[in-house]
């Protein structure tokens, strides 16, 4: 992770994602984590290109899921709640090219009760190229489930808690 102005919980959310796993593999760097708004950048490297030399749409969707998921984590109480990405509705509008940097932005647009337990966070997401043009946009939904409800469901299925 490069030098960041993030502090406290925002820095913890970013570091958890940047230093390991899929986000680390994609080179995602979080630049803003605050209530209702998360931003991150992802360099377009040869590893992220589809066979015709353009940014793979799946990499863009991964960036958008990452910013929405980070927002979901930041918005919930991790002592008592667990966030899960549950839905993505993304439209691709323009292709990215190698050497550019994609900026992913997630803005919280709605919070609704879930039908069984917890609540859903609706994030308006967009990916921008270096010129500020929209590459992809849409909505990503994060469901936040109480951990006691999750433990109950796992026990009913004979599974150990995570």
From TrEMBL:
Q: What range(s) does the Thioesterase domain occupy?
A: 52-111
Q: Name one GO molecular function term.
A: hydrolase activity
Q: Which SUPFAM superfamilies match?
A: Thioesterase/thiol ester dehydrase-isomerase (SSF54637)
Keywords, in A-Z order: Hydrolase
Coiled-coil features, chain-numbered ranges: none
> What EC designation does it have?
3.1.2.-
Family, per the entry? Belongs to the thioesterase PaaI family.
- PANTHER family annotated for this entry? 1,4-DIHYDROXY-2-NAPHTHOYL-COA THIOESTERASE 1
Query: What is the protein name for this chain?
Result: PaaI family thioesterase
């Amino acid at each position: 992770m490069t030098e960041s102005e993030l502090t406290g919980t925002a820095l913890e959310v970013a570091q958890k994602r940047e230093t390991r796993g899929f986000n680390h593999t994609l080179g995602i760097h979080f630049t803003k984590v605050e209530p209702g708004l998360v931003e991150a950048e992802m360099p377009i490297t040869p590893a992220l290109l589809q066979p015709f030399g353009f940014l793979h749409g799946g990499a863009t969707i991964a960036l958008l899921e990452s910013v929405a998921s980070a927002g979901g984590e930041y918005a919930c109480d991790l002592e008592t709640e667990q966030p899960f990405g549950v839905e993505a509705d993304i439209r691709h509008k323009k292709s990215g090219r190698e050497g550019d940097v994609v900026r992913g932005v997630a803005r919280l647009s709605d919070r609704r009760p879930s039908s069984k337990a917890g609540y859903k966070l609706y994030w308006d997401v967009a990916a921008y190229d270096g010129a500020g043009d929209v590459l992809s946009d849409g909505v990503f939904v994060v469901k936040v489930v109480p951990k006691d409800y999750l433990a109950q469901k796992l026990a009913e299925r004979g599974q150990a808690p995570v």
